[in-house]
Amino acid sequence: YRVDFIPLEKIPVWSPSGDPSCKPRYKVNEELNRKISLFSGDITKLEIDAIANAANKTLLGGGGVDGAIHRGAGPLLRKECGTLNGCETGEAKITGAYGLPAKHVIHTVGPIVHDSVGEREEQALRNCYYTCLHTATKNHLRTVAIPCISTGVYGYPPDQAVEVALRTVREYLEQNHEKLDRVIFCVFLKSDKELYETMLPAYFPRG
Ligand code: AR6
Fold it and tell me: Per residue in 158-172, pLDDT tens?
């Protein structure tokens, strides 16, 4: 047991504070609202069923959140990743989490944005979120945290990525609410925390 591990019980369900700065885009659904959290910090500390990794196609490690996950998990993660034959953009592969407090890592590969976001990139990012949730439910995992995929080194504008993330999770939960207990949006930058706080009321409005 390590004191800096964060169990699910310590991660509050998201609840909006103050006036919503955004018009709702979906109906009020308190059941879904209770399944959402916004966690600001290091995803590798979360003691939950699965954390998603914003990896690259080799799955052999890298910088950013990928680097943090591999550092925390230790060399056995890289060893298992080496048996997976990589991963295509928009797809996901699941592994153990080894030295991390989570039970599994779901590795996904986001799109690289060169100049502006097109249909292809948006669809690929949507696929990342969808397939992470689908991989979790297929494996009977009920609590999952997802970082801001593609918005670091891969250059996806965070203000556009947040909409894809929230929309995809909302739609997935509407179809599969009985299969998941919690989806945690894990933000690392203050600017992303603010973006999510602004946009969450549009996708998960309160009654
Ligand atoms: N916990 C949560 N989020 C984090 C952490 C952490 N410990 N560290 C960084 N972030 P990035 P990408 C945030 O660049 O854009 C790697 O080299 C970060 O602030 O990690 O999908 C891979 O191997 C940002 O908001 O992922 C690939 O080559 C978000 O994670 C490439 O980067 C994603 O930033 C993938 O690029």
Answer: 999 999 999 999 999
- Which ipTM score applies to this complex? 0.99
pTM over 0.80: yes
Please tell me the residue having the least CA distance from ligand 1 atom 34.
152
Separation of first and last alpha carbons in the chain? 39
Burial of 70 (0-12, 13-18, 19+ CB in 10 A): buried
Sequential DSSP letters for 105-139: EEEEEPPP-SSS--HHHHHHHHHHHHHHHHHHHHT
Query: Considering only CA atoms, which residue is closest to atom 19 of ligand 1?
Result: 188
122 lines ligand 1 (CB under 6 A): no
Question: What's at 74, amino acid-wise?
Answer: G
Q: Is 86 in the pocket of ligand 1 (CB under 6 A)?
A: no
CA 121 – CA 29 distance, rounded (Å) = 29
The answer, yes or no, to whether any atom of ligand 1 lies below 6 A from the CB of 151, is yes
